[in-house]
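Give me structure tokens for this 523-residue protein.
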Amino acid sequence: MKKLRIYLIAGAALAMSATSCDKFLDINKNPNSPTEATADLILPQAIVRVAGTVPSFNSYGAALTGYFVNAGGFSGWGTLVSYNYTTADYSGLFSSMYKAIEDLQQVVIMSEGDESKDIYVAAAKVLQVYCWENLVDVYNDVPYSEALQGASLLQPKYDKAEDIYKSIAETLDGALATFDANITSSQFKAADKLFKGDLTKWKQFANTIKLRLIVRGGSKVSFSNTSFNSAGFLTDDALVNPGYVDESGKQSPMYASYAYSPSGSVSGTTAYIPSTFVMGFYNGTKIQDGERAALMFNNGLSVPHNQLGYQDDPPKGINPSAWYVHGPGNATKANGSQIGILKGPGQGQPLMLAAESYFLQAQANLRGIVGTPADAKTNFVNGIKASYNYLAKNPAGAVTTGYNANTFYNNYLAENALNKLVDFDACTTDEERLEAIVTQQYIAFNMTTGHQAWFEYIRTGYPRNRMPVTRANAPYAFSSTHSEATAADKLPTRVLYPESEFRYNSGNVPTVDKYTSKIFFAR
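Here you go.
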């Protein structure tokens, strides 16, 4: 019963985001009759579905990288602290991503033969690439070339992860060429719940996803084209917002998962609090950053924190969650500060932060993929500023009056002078510079895109996860004290394929080990 209790808590959060996604633009009464809908109607629904997957992917990564840990008052933490995953753990990542890809494929199918809908196809394919990359980064080899065939092919083969990376990068090149050949139509602008018809932003988004593929794939993938469209990379957050409102099934996915329901009841959970490890990047243990902590956590630096797996006398959680920033007094729905991670029920759902774009560029600068090594510092600084700006944004997506990223950065640098994780000029080697960049990515991804933090950790080893896993070393190690993993860092290497694959596609699903089978780009 104890174990069931925590599974129900975690499941409720994931179900909340899935419900929000399914209800918001539920326009297809009969999914077996595609004639009831058109590309104009399916594209916005598909975009919203993709956005609805982000909270569960974030939670998966957050549990592995120390963004959240167990609080007091609960027990039976099971695989969250042991990492002894079964085929049931995180199985929704697989199914939800394929469902999103299938929805986007309907846009492609319904637009075939209609040149006026080429732009819909291009947008759908960019988002499919976004989804395919997430699947590969979680599972490595997945069904790809034989996927999406419906009843005509119920047991698709699994493609190699490296081959999928190469293919989806080529898909992005095709979409970029289509964007270059089109001007925004009024229909597409209405259907586009991501960039509101701005094709420059679509091109920047596609470029940035491609840059992430190339940075992450490295020498292990034989990309056919490593150049980029002249539109450049994202300079603002990619936020989906179809008009989220404070109504049942229509709230922003992250808010619905971790804050309040429309009725005012708590939909978040007090079962989770930040780790002592992650708090070290705010409270001065590793970096001093009280200003961003105030934008991130319920009660700022005073938020309770713990070490993953420690259950003797852990701090209690806090309502509605540790990431709900509120005004003076107690946390209530009406007292929300409309900043941070949980801004309000009408906030946009991030698919990719501008901070990630800048930090990817900084990494690419060091490796000569784009720009020059001299550009890395500029992108590093811009990434820190963009992270601050996202937290300072209100539900409408505008930076709240009184918050200034330049002032913040100057104060941040002064408080952490000569700290190589903050002061780029203090770094003397490219490895130190890479550590600074990826560590700042980790800070920027905190409870927004935790899965991306995990992918970067297994690729680079940053932020440093220093052993041993002891109470005394809690600020420097995010692995669980109850880990059953066999690796030196006491972490798993991956999750398992879902039980449904072993049941329906057993002849093709690869045999993997959660403690030794690595994602292809992992170090």
